[in-house]
């Protein structure tokens, strides 16, 4: 796909995200850039209970947050995708692409459907 994601999970944090969390995401982005030099800049994503970041945290531009509601929406859509497959087991490439798009499971749809912009505190 044309979209790359770098995802850091911070599921134990219940309040705002802090500078150390931003630092870990930056290190992961640097690793990605070294490991995949031909890929476009990835979308930085934090999986967390809170969608808030401390003002001094300095997260990379474009950081997105995946919260419990986004995860639940993703799981619901995956479940519906598999139900579609059971009802009609046709597996042609075009049919699979159609089903993925219908359930917002394509790589280009992931960011806008399941994540939201990180909010400053």
Report what the structure shows.
The chain has a 4-stranded mixed β-sheet, with helices on both faces. Strands 3-6 form a two-stranded parallel ribbon. It has helices spanning 19-35, 68-87, 93-102, 107-114; strands at 5-10, 43-48, 52-53, 64-66, 116-117, 119-120. It is of the alpha/beta class. The model has no long low-confidence stretch (mean pLDDT 89).
Question: Top keywords for this entry?
Answer:
4-stranded mixed beta sheet, 121 residues, 6 strands, 4 helices, alpha/beta, two-stranded parallel ribbon, globular
Quick overview:
45% of the residues lie in helices and 17% in strands. The strands form two sheets. A four-stranded mixed beta sheet has the order 1-2-4-5, sandwiched between helices. A two-stranded parallel sheet has the order 3-6. It is built from four helices and six strands.
Beta strand %: 15-25%
Low-confidence stretches: none
Helical run tally: 4
Radius of gyration: 16 Å
Shape label = globular
Oligomeric form: single chain
DSSP strand count: 6
Classification by helices and strands:
alpha/beta
The largest sheet, given as strand count, sense and whether it forms a barrel, is: 4 strands, mixed
End-to-end C-alpha gap: 34 Å
Series of H and E elements: EHEEEHHHEE
> Could you report the average pLDDT, rounded to the nearest whole number?
89
Please give the order of strands in the largest beta sheet: 1-2-4-5
Helical content class? 40-55%
